[in-house]
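Could you help me review a protein record that somebody else here produced? This is what I was given.
***
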Amino acid sequence: MAFGWIDEQAEARRRAGLLRTLRPRPADSPLLDLASNDYLGLARHPEVVEGAAGAARTWGGGATGSRLVTGTTELHARLETELAEFCGFEAALVLSSGYAANLAAVTALGPHGSLIVSDAGNHASLIDGCRLARGTTQVVGHADPEAVAKALAAHQGEAIALSDTVFSVDGDAAPLSLLAGACREHGAGLVVDDAHGLGVLGEGGRGAVHAAELAGAGDVVATATLSKSLGSQGGVVLGRARVIGHLVNTARTFIFDTGLAPAAAGAALAALRLLRREPERPARVRAVAAELHARLTAEGLAAVRPDAAVVSVRAPSPDAAVRWAADCRAEGLSVGCFRPPSVPDGVSRLRLTARADLSEADIERAVRVVTAVRPC
């Protein structure tokens, strides 16, 4: 029977406790949300919502074509200019998702004959970028600049090192300055995904790359998503103008994809301007994450100290993690549940995401629920 193997794999996933299902949420969910990536609490902010609605009224429901045909509006150009200026880069290129941005950057900057040195903890989009790139990929240990330097030293020719700035599983930060040093010692470029740093780290939320004083450097390229701190959708690649020009001409997820919908561009631009006006939001989200970590560990839970907004709490098994998350939901709290293959070390986790708009009462409630229903 055609696709008969699908049923076998589904049964194997069920036995291993790894079966995933969709769970549509209502618009007015009563759950306290510590599962989304809406770090700054902007997805439903009136200005951001109006930014989306106004853009849709002006430009229509869709971009109507690829960016190189009809999909680039004046709104896209304004968003790119303001993102580049805010993050400290010369130029920016907006794509339809953060995933597409990472595929674009890695494939365009890892051509045939080049070496791509990739952190073992990198996001799936970076991993897929390596698989699609024509260069040779070497995976090195997590957050290990010495391993990166060793890999680069053994290669003759073009090379890039590839890393998240803040890793999505445990929320730990990459040693960006040391990685940049290793790359510069061997004439390699550094490409980093700042999805979890933009809006959370750096001066006024300008990101981890800006905080490390690497923004705008000719040998550094950053990507980010517009779907986390900016509460919208889409992705961006940031770098020197010549790098962005190269992507415009070579990155297939840019050339052949329909442009980002105007509503998403309008929402992201409104959120960016609101962030510039309220630079205290990033400090608040970091404070909430630190408080969650302190209270959870005080209760005896194995929570990883957060470097940004993600607080990871280890579970004894995939099944236990699923039950734990379900029990939290039954008590009115939504948390993330990470299991293999989403976790590179095979250890299942609850993943709590701090938000700048959480109150002290929200924090207390979240800790109380997670603690009360923890696996025995």
